[in-house]
Amino acid sequence: QPPGERLQLLLRRSREAKNCAYCPYSRFPVGAALLTASGEIFSGCNVENACYSLGVCAERTAIQKAISEGHTSFRAMAIASDMGDFITPCGACRQVMREFGTDWDIYLTKADGTYIIKRLEELLPLSFGPEDLKK
Fold this sequence. Notes:
This protein is an alpha+beta fold. The protein has 4 helices and 5 strands, in the order H-E-E-H-E-H-E-E-H.
């Protein structure tokens, strides 16, 4: 787990990213903040499109930003929304996260700021990853 101050920053950055969401169709803003192994934080928000299938989730936006800056090793991600219950990543995001390992923490938050921690391997059990292509 990230140290307390770093964790609070990660959670805050996910909430801030949520405020940038472009979601005129679903009106369901989501923000994500990704902590790299080197300690950098990359945030992302969901971006919808009138051609619905071309939209992208906050989690994938944050991952793509980190990768475009040369980072492929991650320690944690916080996800924020306005839901009264804990926000969870969709299946596509879980698979994209899985590309980069299963041993990192996902902080699922509620609108009131409370959170629970899940390991990625808990969110996507019996997953398929890069090592399976080498078998």
